[in-house]
């Protein structure tokens, strides 16, 4: 099943020059230095990844459209070759591509799969070791890139098994397309539904619910169990944060509308559990008590609100001066949101909270907290401890920011806290390491954000506001009544 949400680019194609194949044939090797540009007998440029020359798995070759490279195509490391200049009507022979790859020194041990965009959906066994898949567009190609990359090593090592996986996907998948609009409907952001009708929406889940319902319709009478997962990418448009938000909405919809596997019954982890409540639980699927969760969240948010003036003062020196206000307003919104919620269902509550914060908490901090909480809500439902869930969420966050430890950001607080909590299980030790991390930012050179424009002497002695604000939150949450 595929749900396609296409972006609207606010620039003319002529300005972006997206269909200039020479441009992409030059840019792609710069993005991936391991790429080598070769020519086929008929004159097409083939961009071959030389790091896969000795790879034992089935080769994946993509014939796409210039200017429509998806983030998946640009980032995945199992794509052997890419062709962007096979224009309609020109010859782009599969056998020519295989020959070019062979001449580049690649050992064909397991066979080749060619994904060709701009075709009617089809699956052709060209030769025993050569399979070609025709797909409508580059987003369909992207789905198969993800599918082939996620298969087991045993599947990727066999052209026969890979062929069966592809056949099953093409026979059972459905695609529905909705498009975000630049204009508004009724004063709200607008989306064009699969029937082409435009309507306004309030939240991301409203924007894609109709498309999801239509995509699920052909599978309504399916008797066998349905296994689902979500992946997403952008093609010259949606940001990673927007993709992440849409991915959450799709995952939430599927979870609510597909029959879930029964969870095992296990003892509850509550305030009476020996040791820290943050780290010790008795079951893989954690359970929480409303009072314990509410106490920690309220104490953390209250601490941030009280410390707003200090955070603001720091940010007026080294930033835009809005960090304190952003964190304060976010904390107030959290308190308002949880007032009438059942916090014993923490993963679901966090998921719903993100919807609220997306609208009501701005700035870079708001985006980072939303990404982190989105991942945390999922991890809390599938890991054995809060410490592990925090670690999973942090790793996900690192996929969406270039910031790392030592860059003078909130990560100088988050990383030492999470890593120490996971390794020691002791909250006090983790807080001490987080505090040392925040203290270190007083002498660090800023590598990201507005502080990078300031002379180092201007930031010396002042902690990073985001890191300091997070420390205040964590300290507050460590206090229980």
UniProtKB/TrEMBL annotation:
It catalyses: D-glyceraldehyde + ATP = D-glyceraldehyde 3-phosphate + ADP + H(+); dihydroxyacetone + ATP = dihydroxyacetone phosphate + ADP + H(+). The keyword rRNA-binding does not apply. One of its GO terms (cellular component) is cytosol. Coiled coil: none annotated. GO terms for molecular function: ATP binding; glycerone kinase activity; triokinase activity. Keywords: ATP-binding, Kinase, Nucleotide-binding, Transferase. Pfam families: Dak2. This is DhaL domain-containing protein. It comes from Aureobasidium uvarum.
